[in-house]
Write a structure and sequence with these properties.
The protein has 260 residues and is of the alpha/beta class. It contains 11 helices and 13 strands. It folds into 2 domains: 131 residues, NAD(P)-binding Rossmann-like Domain (Rossmann fold, 3-Layer(aba) Sandwich), CATH 3.40.50; 102 residues, Dihydrodipicolinate Reductase, domain 2 (2-Layer Sandwich). Helix 1 crosses helix 11 and helix 5 packs parallel to helix 6. The chain binds 1,4-dihydronicotinamide adenine dinucleotide and oxaloacetate ion. Its EC number is 1.4.1.21. It catalyses: L-aspartate + NAD(+) + H2O = oxaloacetate + NH4(+) + NADH + H(+); L-aspartate + NADP(+) + H2O = oxaloacetate + NH4(+) + NADPH + H(+).
């Protein structure tokens, strides 16, 4: 059982996890340790959620934790994951960090040598089970993602009508929108890769949800997933489902039945 969690980053997703896991105590798991950059800013979490704060990665990794959960950003994954995966299984939500081929191969190598697992939750989308099954024989031909978000999540000036802010491959989408399109990288890794997965990002002043449309075609047939996500109150860029997918992953790791 992975009961004790070490959390990296307390923003919209980190707050959700602290409230759901430590306040409810209903999931058989507990966040024990939290890695932050500024201890003073987060001091109150210690008494509110009965956690220990760390600002030093090594001390955090040596604390009483079974699994690390990252809920920070792509840059944090780049600096933290190589060390973390040597010591612990690790759940990553800023999956965009793995778009860098050299970095991905490096951390997969470390995971293999140290016999730890990198878990990549499906985040704000779905259908990754189907995509991985359809691709077992390498016969998926096309994968595309169209993401439509409220305009102010994507552009810093007011717009009256929708604007396509990106059209191209996932590899380039994550470079331009590292806080908005991590989903394109998990989709790429489950399917046909970051250079073949097509991405369109639309800033839309007329929507209040984060919409993702995934289209898959291959020898299996075709599939379409359309997801209309409510966002988390603390960060409109981030979908509620993305936070829930971490909790779901933690529950499935500890479960005795694996579905999908
Ligand atoms: N895979 C997916 O489907 C999705 C991924 N995401 C990604 O999840 C991550 C977290 O999302 P939110 O909680 O909404 O972001 P947020 O911006 O609300 O919170 C991130 C927190 O991490 C902290 N942080 C940054 N670097 C750190 C470091 N080196 N050590 C410790 N703390 C650090 C920040 O101070 C901030 O409090 C983001 O990278 C976001 O892009 C978000 C939604 C969906
Ligand atoms: O939460 C979402 O809808 C998607 C997102 O921000 C990401 O993939 O980075």
């Amino acid at each position: 059982m992975r009961r004790n969690i070490g959390l990296i980053g307390v923003g919209a997703i980190g707050n959700f996890l602290l409230k759901e896991i430590n306040r409810d105590k209903a999931h058989g798991i507990k966040i024990e340790s939290v890695l932050v950059r500024d201890r003073r800013k987060y001091e109150s979490l210690q008494s509110e959620f009965n956690v220990t704060l760390y600002t030093e990665l090594n001390e955090f990794l040596c604390s009483n934790i079974d699994i690390v959960v990252e809920a920070a950003n792509v840059e944090a994954v780049k600096t933290i994951l190589p060390k973390a995966i040597k010591e612990k299984d690790t759940i990553i939500i800023s999956i965009g960090a793995l778009a860098d081929e050299y970095f991905r191969q490096h951390v997969l190598h470390l995971a293999n040598i140290h016999q730890h697992t990198i878990y990549l939750p499906s985040g704000a989308i779905g259908g990754l089970d189907l995509l991985q099954n359809a691709q077992t024989l390498g016969t998926v031909k096309e994968v595309s993602l169209t993401t439509r978000k409220p305009a102010n999540s994507l552009v810093d000036h007011a717009i009256m009508d929708e604007v396509v802010v990106f059209e191209g491959k996932a590899a380039d989408a994550i470079k331009q929108f590292p806080k908005n399109i991590n989903v394109s990288i998990v989709l790429s890794l489950a399917g046909i890769g970051i250079d073949k997965t097509k991405v369109t990002i639309i800033a839309d002043p007329h929507v209040d949800k984060n919409n993702h449309q995934v289209e898959i075609k291959g020898d299996f047939g075709s599939a379409t997933f359309s997801i209309k996500n409510n966002s988390l109150p603390d960060n409109p860029k981030t979908s509620y489902l993305a936070a829930m997918s971490i909790l779901g992953t933690l529950k499935r790791i500890n479960g005795n039945v694996k579905i999908g």
